[in-house]
Design brief:
The chain is 80% helix and 0% strand. It is mostly helical.
């Protein structure tokens, strides 16, 4: 699929936004894994562990980008993104980041890479969908967003806590990516091509549906806590 300048920019911005919103947990895991190391070794472990995590993330994303070209898998990937968007709007649970501190440099690196790979599956799927099959977009997006996540994770998390709308924007971006993946699936794209309005209707349905349901759930959660 050829990308125009506008498509490239919108895809790049979507990838950066998705990675910033979804990768907050990964940044916390990196910090927890290296927390017991001496300061001078800690910085090296975080840096090289992050480099390893980026390489693994790129390989995983390349595989997913290839798989999404197969008929039906773009549809499946789009549907799998919806629970990810929904989970993003769930009320925070305590003890969500139980990661043992590593005892040494190599142990910390291994923990960081493995934990990032396991926790980064949602990022990989969302970014692969937003890239529309273009690995250059993925590489540029990760090159920009990963350093921001690693070195600015505290700032990002405070920003999200202070402005909850950031989470809704992230969930909307995931829902929008899901809608685009479904509409571009090999099995469904001929129908969507013949009914241009349906693409926008699906965008609106998923984005508004996810965000509205999430807002209602958060409101109900706050009411229950107020009564308690």
């Amino acid at each position: 699929m050829e990308l125009t300048g506008t498509d490239f920019l919108s895809g790049l911005l979507a990838i950066i936004l998705l990675d910033l919103v979804l990768a907050g947990d990964n940044a916390i895991v990196i910090a927890l894994a290296a927390r017991n190391l001496p300061r001078q070794i800690q910085k090296k472990a975080v840096m090289w562990g992050t480099v390893g995590a980026i390489v693994v993330r790129l390989l995983m994303t390349a595989i997913v980008v290839y798989l999404l070209k197969l008929p039906g898998l773009m549809l499946a990937g789009g549907l799998l993104l919806l629970p990810i968007a929904w989970k993003l709007l769930q009320p925070e649970k305590e003890s969500a980041h139980e990661v043992d501190a590593a005892a040494g440099f190599w142990s910390a690196m291994r923990t960081i890479i493995v934990a990032d790979a396991l926790m980064g599956l949602d990022n990989v799927l969302a970014i692969a969908g937003a890239s529309k099959g273009h690995m250059l977009l993925v590489i540029i997006g990760l090159a920009i967003s990963v350093p921001l996540v690693v070195w600015g994770s505290t700032l990002i998390l405070r920003l999200i806590e202070r402005f909850p709308i950031v989470v809704y924007i992230g969930a909307a971006a995931i829902a929008w990516t899901s809608a685009r993946m479904i509409a571009h699936d090999h099995w469904l794209s001929p129908w969507f091509d013949a009914h241009a309005w349906a693409r926008y209707a699906l965008d609106a349905l998923l984005v508004v549906g996810i965000c509205l349901a999430g807002w209602l759930m958060q409101r109900r959660h706050r009411r229950l806590h107020t009564k308690a």
